[in-house]
């Protein structure tokens, strides 16, 4: 795996993180917020790791993020054509959708989303 491809993947994930707006949340997990329609929205905390290779611990971006009402906890997996996982990442993502086998270069990407409880993306 070449350094330019790895760097490109890291830049893509950082771009997704900035667009989701979840880099600077500091709310506690037991808080609730009111949205503009006066509906109560429960705050959900998500496990965060920007870079984790299979069989290894998180090597970049380890921590916890807080999903806003527009966000969900997410787990992303990049894998080769033969189905072998190459890279995992997780965190908070705005407008998250479950997708499977999205082609990205010579790899495929899966996204799984959840909002049911704190740290729900640890088990996805």
From TrEMBL:
Say yes or no: keyword Signal present. Answer: yes
Per UniProt, residues of the UPAR/Ly6 domain are 44-122
| Alphabetic keyword roster | Signal
Return any one Pfam family short name. Answer: UPAR_LY6
Taxonomically, which superkingdom? Eukaryota
CDD domains reported for this sequence = TFP_LU_ECD_PATE1
Q: Which GO terms describe its molecular function?
A: acetylcholine receptor regulator activity
Record keywords: Signal included?
A: yes
Q: Extract the InterPro entries matched here.
A: LY6_UPA_recep-like
Q: Which residues form the signal peptide?
A: 1-21
Q: What is this protein called?
A: Prostate and testis expressed 1
- Read off the lineage from the record: Eukaryota, Metazoa, Chordata, Craniata, Vertebrata
């Amino acid at each position: 795996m070449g350094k330019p491809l790895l760097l490109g993947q890291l830049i893509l994930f950082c771009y997704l993180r900035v667009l989701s707006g979840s880099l600077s949340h500091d709310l506690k997990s037991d808080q609730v917020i009111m949205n503009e329609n006066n509906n109560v929205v429960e705050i959900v905390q998500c496990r965060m790791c920007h870079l984790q290779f299979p069989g290894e611990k998180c090597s970049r971006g380890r921590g916890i993020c807080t999903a806003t009402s527009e966000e969900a906890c997410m787990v992303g997996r990049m894998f080769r054509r033969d189905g072998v996982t190459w890279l995992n990442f997780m965190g908070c993502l705005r407008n998250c959708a479950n997708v499977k086998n999205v082609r990205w270069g010579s790899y495929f990407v899966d996204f799984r989303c959840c909002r049911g409880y704190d740290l729900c993306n640890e088990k996805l």
